[in-house]
């Protein structure tokens, strides 16, 4: 069976910026494409937003990510809605951090994102704001990721 211990699993609502962040972190060309299925790369597991957004898919979200080395729960700072249940991340017995995306956006609301992520069970010290478009916060996030996963990014 494949070992996902050295992979980072990205979960979060549809359009929250999981794939764009992955592309930025791995220095890939940033192109938009709706994630239709779980996608594995050397050090990431990218999931479709439906996995956390639709309750019927949540067990699937947990199944495919529960043996990763790190879970990254992503929240878009432009998102008015939350669909991650309270203390959702406590389901995992592996490390979880939160990432707030789209901080470059003029409708970005960091306070709201922090609220949603802490509601999901993430410790406030483990929340990292970034913009995958401007690159703000990306260097800091890479340093955090490298504490959990050993690879060059
Ligand atoms: N302004 C801004 N836009 C972003 C940022 N990150 C992602 N986006 C935009 O948000 C949209 C959705 O991004 P995706 O990365 O596809 O979102 P996703 O979470 O992978 O979505 P699903 O695959 O549908 O679950 C795209 O149009 C991105 O260009 C960011 O940091 N800033
Ligand atoms: Mg995607």
UniProtKB/TrEMBL annotation:
UniProt xrefs under SUPFAM superfamilies: P-loop containing nucleoside triphosphate hydrolases
UniProt keywords, alphabetically: Nucleotide-binding
Pfam families recorded: PduV-EutP
Keyword Repeat: no
Family of the protein in this entry: Belongs to the EutP/PduV family.
PANTHER family in alphabetical order: PROTEIN YOEF
Name of this protein: EutP/PduV family microcompartment system protein
């Amino acid at each position: 069976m494949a070992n996902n211990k050295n992979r980072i699993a990205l979960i979060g609502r549809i359009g929250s910026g999981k794939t764009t962040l992955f592309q930025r972190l791995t220095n890939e060309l940033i192109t938009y494409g709706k994630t239709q299925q779980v996608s594995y790369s050397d050090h990431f597991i990218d999931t479709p937003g439906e996995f956390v957004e639709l309750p019927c898919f949540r067990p699937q979200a947990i199944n495919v990510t529960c043996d990763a080395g790190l879970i990254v729960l992503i929240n878009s700072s432009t998102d008015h809605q939350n669909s991650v249940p309270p203390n959702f991340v406590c389901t995992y017995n592996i490390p979880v951090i939160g990432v707030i995306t789209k901080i470059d956006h003029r409708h970005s609301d960091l306070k709201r994102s922090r609220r949603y992520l802490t509601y999901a069970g993430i410790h406030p010290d483990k929340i990292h704001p970034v913009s995958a478009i401007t690159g703000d916060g990306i260097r800091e996030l890479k340093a955090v990721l490298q504490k959990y996963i050993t690879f060059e990014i």
